[in-house]
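Fold it.
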Amino acid sequence: MAKKGTNVMVVSNDDWQAKNDLDTMMEYERICKDPKRKAKVQALAKQKMMAMAAVVAEADED
């Protein structure tokens, strides 16, 4: 029985990064157009920044 061949596509890291960056930019545009989604993202970003600030403050105490 013959084996089924597989196709392997090799993409350079630069090409992959460019596609990923484009996807990120397109998603950003969709988020900006959706006020509810944008508010949730901003709230989460603020929460993460506060958590990081607490870690930095704790490290400064040591």
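The chain has a mean pLDDT of 91.
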